[in-house]
Design a protein that fits this description.
Length: about 290
């Protein structure tokens, strides 16, 4: 036999409110509908659940016993229903970013963002692979490229430069770098491709064949770590070394720089950017990255 959930809930609300009028207001029906549902329940179980008088209604002994058996269950259902109507306690933004960018820049930027927006929850996953934003549970991807991704929206965040950095102790030991040619007096820390220093030296008019190279690390943040330990001079995206420069663990050893071709973009489905928490986050990341460079 089917359980008359609607009528049982009506009985629970009437018992909780102590008034059919108040119960009708809460349930969005007429007092007559409430009265009819209570009569249906009483007829089904063959017992009076309320006494009625000019002063109002009151639970009978049977009614009070019956309510004590169902009130906890309906109370839990009402609480769960209210929580779903209210939505999550805080909105959630799921971010995917390359490990080096997350380590060098994103962690600091998100920490400052959450200090101002404590009700927005963030989760960050770090992978080098290209996530599928249409099928995977990711809201925003921070991608390094030209910003053209069919079917997706891209918002420019920053265009990093390649700059020459070294630890202050290394420069104090071996002397300053006043020109690109002076870099050849140091061990050079290459990127994983081994092409960064040769191209940069060539662009600066320096014979790159005389260069001495140190360990090549697959991940740029390991190169950053090696540079802070004085293992050599590095040519790195300024985004990657922002915190190290600010803390004095690294210094910009030479003013000469070479803007990179690609930029960092926040990428997502067009409708994702319409969510106010996402829009606030992207605006924050743009401001934290500084003005666009030509």
């Amino acid at each position: 036999m089917a359980i008359p959930i609607r009528d049982l809930h009506t009985f629970h609300v009437v018992a909780r409110c102590g008034s059919m009028v108040a119960a009708a207001r809460e349930l969005g029906v007429t007092p007559g509908a409430i009265s009819q549902r209570i009569k249906t329940i009483e007829d089904r179980y063959g017992a009076r659940l309320f006494t009625r008088s000019r002063k109002g209604i009151a639970l009978t002994k049977v009614g009070a016993s019956f309510w004590s058996e169902i009130r906890e269950a309906f109370g839990a259902i009402e609480a769960a229903h209210a929580a779903q109507l209210a939505g999550p306690a805080t909105p959630l933004i799921r971010i995917n970013a390359a490990p080096t960018y997350a380590w060098s820049s994103l962690v600091s930027d998100l920490g400052a963002f959450q200090a101002v927006h404590p009700k927005i929850r963030l989760t960050v996953e770090t992978e080098d692979r290209l996530v599928d934003l249409r099928s995977e549970p990711v809201d925003l991807a921070i991608r390094h490229g030209l910003g053209t991704y069919p079917g997706l929206k891209s918002v420019w965040l920053c265009a990093p430069e390649l700059i020459v950095v070294a630890s202050p102790d290394l420069l104090a030991e071996k002397g300053p770098i006043r020109s690109a040619a002076d870099c050849l007096n140091f061990t050079l820390l290459p990127d994983s491709t081994g092409k960064d220093w040769p191209l940069w030296l060539r662009a600066q008019g320096v014979d790159e064949t005389r260069a001495r190279y140190g360990t090549a690390f697959k991940d740029d943040f390991l190169t950053v770590k090696a540079a802070t330990k004085g293992q050599g001079v590095a040519l790195l995206n300024d985004v990657y070394v922002r915190d190290e420069l600010a803390a004095g663990r690294l210094v910009r050893a030479l003013d000469a720089s070479w803007p990179t071709k690609f930029a960092y973009y926040a990428v997502g489905l067009p409708e994702t950017f319409q969510r106010p928490p996402v829009a606030a986050l992207v605006t924050w990341l743009q401001a934290a990255s500084g003005p666009e460079r030509g």
